[in-house]
């Protein structure tokens, strides 16, 4: 038995142990669960130390301390972050957190504006008249996109309802163009949520089939010599 | 003598409260009446014959003479007077076992309770307050033999008669009426023993037996369960028989997003650097990795001399996820080729900040990169690259491999041109293998099992909804 196949066997047994939870909670499942958490944390620590801290911070500072003054800044911020472990000195670590969160949020917000909001808004400005390379079917698709975008946006407008609306007001409000428009927006939302749900279901079925494939083709067949 | 308005007991005139029930007695004495004479025990034997007095004696200590008090003449016992209590039955239950056995003596007169007064109490003791009604006293006087011991909060009789209020009473345990006390409860079941015990202590009494409703087996539920079982078993069977998938289902239909993906890879220049972002994690491996492996195999095929126009490709791997580094090495180990060069930059912490360092002049320049392929765990992983890198380098083609769950959210980027191709889950990978890279792999091996499972789950959803709507109509 090679080392690779030994690892495959361990993985297969752990997979079956995790599936034993389908019968009921049991110590073996708990063992596998704790093993997963422990190895994940340990692996992350090792990766961070050996791929981030040592090559990108420690070694440059040791080899060329005078030329890498810029690395002192993340070093100090990192050390301040350790103060979060102390209830008394925890406030000192807020400086590091504020810097990291501020930078991250600023970049994320800027990227969302430039990379999603503006381009996606522009992408909804579509031609509707067929011709000049636009087929009638594509024009219809563009129309659906525009109607869906506007209807969904309008469905998120909220107004204050009258305290005691009369039946006539209720009927008028449900049959008004605004209400119908809002209802169309809700239908677009429901269709989108349904598509997301379908994709999620497909993903989890794929994960299940992937495990079957692993157990049968990667483990059982070599184990039984088939 | 003063008759108690509550229980009718004849109390001496010196008493302010009834000796039996503790009720406040009507004041009949004249304002100028002399104070009551102090009691003096007539004889130690006579005092010892009374339960209360005996209790006082043994509590005070044997041999210690009682305080000298003048005793009034005791009237003869009345026929309807309460009988003298032998022993210490007037004592609280927790003191009865400690008291000595009294000697049988003659029945004292009915106003034997005059032997008790409160002159011996300290000055700081508060004024006694009336006790509860006489029913409680009767209950304490003659407890039922078959009744479980309960805690009485009254002190209208016995040693502490009339001194209620000296110690504030708080019920330590209060049972609901009709509940069965702890000693008479049934043995608790092995499961939930602590819960039953708590219920009894807390006053809940014996928990009623759980009502087991007859299990109805509606047709819809059985069908749902059957379909759900099939959704698990059928994919397993399809995996057991290789080649069955293709025989039954044939090739998957082409997808436009996968075709665009393959076309973008094919369009690489003769010498190109491809940046591969391994941002998926081990838990999503079965869903994402078929597309990843198919992509690497396609790139490897482009570098061979058998390709129509052989390319020199440099693959650069980077990961914003700690696990991505190991997964990249694993994929490369399975798909390594001498026609490709491989560089793994490793893990870049910081998310969007790390991506900006890739764009910075001092960092690794992305200007030489001809193609960016993101292997993401979820929508946000791909979005991050599009927003931070794709928006800054508009000419850089961006491809993505993501789970099927992310497809709906990523399609707008594909439609807007920010994504040039997308492989969504195993279906996308299978389509790419068949129609794009022309190398069959895990995607092709699994696609039909997934399709079958998805159809069966769809059947479960339909059956469950039909059942729910039928039940709603019936109700």
Fill in the keyword field for this structure.
heterodimer, A: extended, B: 475 residues, alpha/beta, two-stranded antiparallel ribbon, 8 strands
Describe the structure.
The complex is a heterodimer of chains A (226) and B (475). Chain A is built from seven helices and no strands. The two termini of chain A are 16 Å apart. Chain A is an all-alpha fold and 226 residues long. With 475 residues, chain B is of the alpha/beta class. Helices cover 39% and strands 10% of the residues of chain B. Chain B has 15 helices and eight strands. In chain B, helix 9 packs parallel to helix 14. The two termini of chain B are 74 Å apart. At the A-B interface, helix 2, helix 4 and helix 7 of A face helix 6, helix 9, helix 10, helix 11 and helix 12 of B.
> What value does the Rg of chain B take, in angstroms?
47 Å
Q: Structural class of chain B, please?
A: alpha/beta
How confident is the prediction overall: mean pLDDT of chain B?
A: 72
Helix/strand order of chain B: EEHHHHHHHHEHEHEHEHEHEHH
Class from secondary-structure proportions of chain A: mainly alpha
For the biggest sheet of chain B, the summary is: 6 strands, parallel
Q: Please give the alpha-carbon distance between the first and last residues of chain B.
A: 74 Å
Whole-angstrom Rg of chain A? 29 Å
* Shape assignment of chain A: extended
Uncertain spans of chain A: none
Q: Summarize the largest interface: chains and residue counts.
A: A-B, 41 and 53 residues
Strand content of chain B: 5-15%
On the 0 to 100 scale, the average pLDDT of chain A is: 88
| Span of the ends, CA to CA of chain A | 16 Å
Series of secondary-structure elements of chain A, N-terminal to C-terminal: HHHHHHH
